[in-house]
């Protein structure tokens, strides 16, 4: 076992230490559905600041998570009216410029899965 610092002292198998140190930097944007396995991690502090945890984990009507470059940067909610899907994205801070286009593409994929023929994306910064 080898000691590592991850918000607090913890341990990892020595054989896994090189893999941990050489892991690739995550890239891209995803709209994760409510209760996605990634957001159901045991240690919530490792994926989202405590300040925003109540925004993501709600007992009723939980939103999806906006994931950008491996970091949860906001929440999203869908609203379908007829054949139109509106996706409202609320970010926890400034949104990188390149993320706008990528989030529109993600919303269009969700719309296709839900049988919508048009997509509207609304942005809000909390």
Structure, briefly:
The protein is α+β, with helices and mostly antiparallel strands.
Task: Outline the structure in words.
The structure is a single chain. By secondary structure, the protein is α+β, with helices and mostly antiparallel strands. The protein has one domain (25-125). 21% of the residues lie in helices and 35% in strands. The protein has three helices and seven strands; from the N terminus they run ββαβαβββαβ. The protein has helices at 17-21, 53-56, 97-113, and strands spanning 2-5, 9-12, 29-32, 64-68, 71-81, 84-91, 118-125. The strands form two sheets. A five-stranded mixed sheet has the order 3-4-5-6-7, with helices on one face. A hairpin with a 2-residue loop joins strand 4 and strand 5 (71-81).
Helix-strand layout with pairing:
Layout: E1 2-5, E2 9-12, H1 17-21, E3 29-32, H2 53-56, E4 64-68, E5 71-81, E6 84-91, H3 97-113, E7 118-125
Parallel strand pairs: 6-7
Antiparallel strand pairs: 1-2, 3-4, 4-5, 5-6
Query: Helicity, in percent?
Result: 10-25%
Q: Report the major sheet.
A: 5 strands, mixed
- The string of secondary-structure elements, in order, is EEHEHEEEHE
Uncertain spans: none
How many H/I helices? 3
Mean pLDDT: 90
Q: Please, what is the oligomeric state?
A: single chain
Task: Kindly list the characteristics that best describe this protein.
elongated, single chain, alpha+beta, 126 residues, two-stranded antiparallel sheet, five-stranded mixed beta sheet, 7 strands, 3 helices
């Amino acid at each position: 076992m080898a000691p590592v610092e991850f918000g607090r002292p913890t341990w990892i198998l020595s054989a896994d230490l090189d893999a941990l140190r050489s892991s690739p930097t995550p890239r891209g944007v995803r709209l994760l559905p409510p209760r996605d396995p990634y957001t159901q991690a045991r240690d919530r502090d490792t994926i989202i600041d405590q300040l925003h945890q109540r925004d993501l984990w709600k007992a009723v009507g939980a939103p999806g998570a906006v994931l950008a470059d491996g970091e949860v940067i906001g929440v999203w909610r869908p609203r379908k009216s007829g054949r139109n899907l509106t996706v409202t994205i609320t970010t926890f801070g400034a949104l990188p410029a390149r993320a706008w286009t990528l989030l529109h593409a993600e919303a269009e994929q969700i719309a296709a899965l839900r049988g919508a023929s048009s997509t509207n994306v609304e942005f809000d910064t909390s």
